[in-house]
Amino acid sequence: MKRLVTFLLGCGLALAASAQSWPSKPVKIVVPAPAGSSLDFIARTLGDKLRERWKQPIVVDNKPGAGGMLGMGVVAKAPADGLTLGIGFNGPIAFGPYMYKKMSYDPARELLPIVLTSSQPNVLAVPADNPARTLPEYVAWAKQQAGKVSYASVGAGSSSHLTMELFRNTAGFDAVHVPFAGSPPAGLSLASGETHGLFTVAPALLPLMQSGRIRLLAATSLKRMEGMADVPTVAEQGYPGFEALAWNGLFTASGTPPEVVARINADVNAVMQDAGVREAFAKQGLIIGGGTADSFKTFIGAEGKKWGAIIQKVGITVD
After folding, report:
1. Mean pLDDT in consecutive groups of 10 residues from the start of the chain, 319 residues
2. Which domains can be identified in the chain, with CATH numbers?
3. Which residues neighbour 243 within 8 Å (Cβ) at sequence distance 6 or greater?
4. Closest residue by Cα to residue 68 from 4, 154, 136
5. In sequence order, which residues have a C-beta less than 8 Å from that of residue 216 and are 6 or more positions away?
6. What's this model's pTM, rounded to 2 decimal places?
């Protein structure tokens, strides 16, 4: 018995030492969205602080495409050492298994949730020359277009995509989906009049709003957003209970030692308490995350059930 206790104690000390010595090499954060996107901002903001704690370079690798699955596929297939992280979001994590006939990875089996980094509502934006000034006016306008309305999204299967699908089915109008690789090109398509509507997070649209090229009609939170109190919610404009939040968090490859996951979780939680980080997130309209890896896993499961039911009811499929 004494030998067993000594052995187990030795293993525990070895695991603790392993977590403390991690990382021994540069850490890569894969961002499944283009530079300039909200996910890119989060990765770089956290990366600047994590670099100080980990004493290693943090390499941000933008890999947009396939509704976020391209980047998260890289993370899923990476060595299980915690040196490759990815910022996953609704689409390639919770929505994908319900929409895609085949994914290049299994989110539940090949990715380990580490920590929720942020959440925020989407906003409905329209081109500045659209005649609608309210959400009911937009719905009425869309119904008059006889199927000629198109809407942009930041990627097939994203929160941006599903929010519009849920809303247009709730409101009862037709529109053609035009997916883009991230919020910058989606926003530009809207500003140019190529598309006629876009649900996405507000910070990504800020430059286009400030230049007067687009206009916001509604937010998908149940209460008005802090800092954007002049934007009414979808719920208060005739669709009570309507809510759709975009969220994101850090993941790594399954098989990564639990002590390394715990180390990353603890350090990211600590960084997110930094006053400068919290201020930067708030300016971007981001509700800062945090919590344990287990609580994040539970949250993802609940989101999958909620939106999976909606996806199946509406009949959304992506090849």
Report:
1. 52 55 96 92 97 97 93 98 97 92 95 96 97 98 94 90 92 95 93 97 90 97 87 97 94 98 98 96 88 97 91 82
2. 26-118+246-314 (3.40.190.150), 121-237 (3.40.190.10)
3. 121, 220, 221, 222, 235
4. 154
5. 123, 124, 125, 202, 205, 209, 228, 231
6. 0.79
